[in-house]
Structure formats: structure tokens, C-alpha cells
Specification:
The protein is α/β, with parallel strands linked by helices. The chain is built from 6 helices and 9 strands. The structure holds NADP nicotinamide-adenine-dinucleotide phosphate (NAP).
Amino acid sequence: MADDVPGLVPLGPAGPERAARDVVAALGLRERAVPGRPRVVAAMIASLDGRTAVEGRSVALGHPADRQLLRELRTAADAVLVGTRTLAAERYANLLDEDQVALRRAARRAPHPVMATVSRALDLPLDVPLFAEAGVPIQVYTEHDGAPPPSPGADLAVERFDELTLPAVLEHLGSARGAQVVLCEGGPSLLRELVAQGGLDDLLLTVAPLLAAGDAPSVLEGAELDAPARLALAGVHRAGDHVVLHLRASR
Ligand SMILES: NC(=O)c1ccc[n+]([C@@H]2O[C@H](COP(=O)([O-])OP(=O)(O)OC[C@H]3O[C@@H](n4cnc5c(N)ncnc54)[C@H](OP(=O)(O)O)[C@@H]3O)[C@@H](O)[C@H]2O)c1
């Protein structure tokens, strides 16, 4: 082997098990401010062959520890950004457990993160249970100038832009909704745009020990990026045979 070729480093030995809440706290999201906009962390899960859904949803890919990690990320976030097709496919409801709401209240934060979604056509899946949950703030971003839809129960606000860009969305979440940390839960189309527009800071990518094939989208879906985004490995966690990678955008 040539002397200048680096060797391979085994990961481990395995450390002690840590609660999802402690893993999220150790990310230090709130301490790592980004100038001019909130810090953005994305969370995704994919099969070994890169599929993000089985039969149209991500649930079959999951692990209880990974689902808990997502809920703790929501607890830590001021806003959750999610695409309209994901809201519909995943039937969003009950984002937090009671103890997570209590934790936020104890920290003098709003009981629920702002649920933010983007739809240029203002085409919202209003039959999704989340839209009927009283007290949940939902912030919709659109280019459409029609009347906002009547809310079935949630506290719905609509912000219109002549041209909807994700930097503008993030700027609004920071300045108008007070968000310091935004969690993006995809889907793959929205995440591709977020990466393309320089809006991703951290990625928690869970690799599920499954081979799925099919035509479900990959972690990023859409046109090839001008240049692949380079991320740096910041941490690796394991839950059974699921592996959670924490990566940071290198700038
Ligand atoms: N495994 C995972 O971690 C994971 C996570 C999330 C979702 N998923 C899966 O992914 C699938 C849904 O994802 P998806 O990629 O089809 O849709 P998506 O990203 O959830 O939503 C796409 C929608 O967002 C709106 N949008 C607004 N601005 C956009 C922009 N700049 N770029 C792209 N979209 C924009 C579009 O509506 P307008 O045309 O009205 O603008 C578009 O229809 C589901 O099967 C879901 O189960 C998996």
C-alpha cells in the first residue's frame, strides 16, 4: 500500500447508550447561530439503496429510537419545515408527546414549534389531522395570491412572496416567527431545493438496514446539483442495525 493512502478507521468501540434527548442536546444547535437566518437541521431516513419510502411512506424504514430522535429534534426546534407532499403522505398529527410540550413550556418556549410549509400553488392537504389541531401554529409560504384557505382548527397564517425562495422563507421564520433553529423533515424535493439554495447546516441521516428498490425518491430528489454539496461527518450513532449519521455542511 502506498504510504500516502490513508488507512481505514473502525468506528467504535460502542459508547454507552444515550437517550435521544441527550443526543439532540449534544448537537448544540442553539449555540451555533448562523448569521441572518435560523440554523437548519434536516432529518431523513433511507434504506440501504437510498429509498425514502416504502409503499409511499417512511414508516416501514423506521426504528423506535429513530422516531424518538425525530420527536426530540422537533422539541428542540422553533419551527419545522416540511413539504406539502410529505404532510399528505405521512398524515402529520400529534408532533410532540406531553412531556416534550412540558419541557418546552418549562424553558419558556412556545408549546409547539411553528409548522412551516411551502406551496407555490397554495395547494394544502387540509384533510391531514395536523390542520385540525387547535393551538398548533402553521405558517404557509406561497406565491399564489388567492384567498387563504379556511383553517379546520389550527392557527394558520399565510405569507405570500412574488417569488418563493427558501432563503426568504428562512429569513421570515427567523425575523417574524422568532425561529433560531429550524428542523426540515423533507421531503426529498424540498430538501434538494434547501441544499441547492445553501440552506442546510446539519443533516441527521438514518440508514435503515433494508433494501427496498422501487421508485420512491432518494434523499434528495430533482435535478442534479451544480456541484455536489460536501458534508463533514460529525457523529455516528447506532440503534440496533440502524445507523444514524450526523453530518455538517462544510463551508
Ligand atoms: N424517509 C424520509 O425521511 C422522508 C422524509 C420526508 C418525506 N418522505 C417521503 O417523500 C415523499 C414526499 O416527498 P416529495 O419530495 O414528493 O415532496 P415534498 O418535498 O414533501 O413536497 C413537495 C411540494 O412542496 C412544494 N414546494 C414549494 N416550494 C418548493 C420548491 N422550491 N421545491 C420543491 N417543492 C416545493 C411543492 O408544491 P407546489 O408545487 O404547490 O409549490 C411540491 O409539490 C413521500 O413519499 C414521503 O413519505 C420521506
